[in-house]
Write a structure and sequence with these properties.
Elements (H helix, E strand, L loop, with lengths): L2 E3 L2 E5 L7 H6 L10 E10 L7 E12 L2 E9 L5 H18 L4 E4 L5 H6 L3 E2 L18 E3 L15
Parallel strand pairs: 5-6
Antiparallel strand pairs: 1-2, 2-3, 3-4, 4-5, 6-8, 7-8
């Protein structure tokens, strides 16, 4: 499941908490630990150091039944941060689909081009299931199998 794109490696985080410092640095909300479904990280080689790598980006998914709320992506460095963010979103979509998620939600965070690229559409805040609602952030995008051909009446509330 690991991926490599332009010198940055992408793989699931063995412990989502590894990404917490990135989220704290970017002042983004952190999901409730019990609801974390998975996390993906972007790793770059550590220049001038012993062989190793450092976490330069991450995305975390919070789950409620077959619905997930994506937190991030957060990208702290790199030549192409939007592409790093896009690669994290692509990995998360594959991972969420493998876990049986039907709908994914995300906050815009100024990444509209990334969300639209993968088929997310703007939706009202009221479409979030109650356990995932009430988070900080303005605006909401939703994804359902990469197709914008669905109605809000089909959205799960729970």
């Amino acid at each position: 499941m690991p991926r490599v794109w332009q010198g940055v490696g992408y793989r699931p985080l063995p412990d989502a908490a590894l990404a917490r410092p990135l989220f704290d640095f970017a002042a983004l909300t952190w999901p409730e630990a019990a609801r974390v479904a998975f996390g993906w990280g972007a790793f770059a080689a550590a220049p001038g150091m012993a062989p190793g790598e450092r976490l330069v980006g991450a995305l975390i998914a919070e789950a409620h039944e077959r619905v997930m709320l994506l937190h991030g992506p957060v990208v702290l460095e790199g030549d192409e941060p939007l592409e790093t963010a896009a690669q994290l979103v692509a990995a998360a979509l594959d991972h969420a689909g493998a876990l049986g998620a039907e709908t994914l939600f995300a906050r815009p965070q100024g990444l509209d081009r990334v969300w639209v690229r993968f088929g997310f559409i703007p939706v009202p805040e009221s479409t979030l299931p109650t356990p995932l609602a009430g988070r900080v952030g303005a605006g909401l995008y939703a994804w359902r199998g990469g197709s914008a051909l669905w109605t809000l009446r089909e959205s799960p509330r729970g």
